[in-house]
Amino acid sequence: MSTKDQTLNIGDALPEMRLPPVDRTMLAIFAGASGDLNPIHIDIDFARRAGMPDVFAHGMLGMAWLGRLLTQWAPQSKLRRFDVRFMAITHLGNRPVLTGKVVEKLEQGGEPLARVQVEMRNQYGELKIQGEALVALN
């Protein structure tokens, strides 16, 4: 996106991002990088004692992927707000599919902005995370 581009329209889609399946290595690397060492994401025995069939992805890993979707579309310096709601667990083997679309053009404090809805689903179309961002247009 060129943030000076006045041709941005409501309904415009961000380029879809498809990621490889979630696996144990990915979760271990994210745990180490983020400092989120909650064993439910990396220790199968702990996850089973908690009533889960296996470990599962950190919610913040999915949020990070959505952030990447946004910053591949517009520079990080243009991001004014980014919120998400975690809707369902992302299990091992899920292949994240990230999408977004412009839902509103507005102005706040004299700054032109785009409100962008983002979602992360798995390969079966199951909604895992939904969110919204405000992105500066100039």
From TrEMBL:
SUPFAM superfamilies assigned: Thioesterase/thiol ester dehydrase-isomerase
Domain of life per record:
Bacteria
UniProt-listed CDD domains? SAV4209_like
Q: Where is the MaoC-like domain?
A: 21-106
Q: Which InterPro entries match?
A: HotDog_dom_sf, MaoC-like_dom
Pfam families referenced in this protein's UniProt entry, alphabetically: MaoC_dehydratas
Q: What is this protein called?
A: Dehydratase
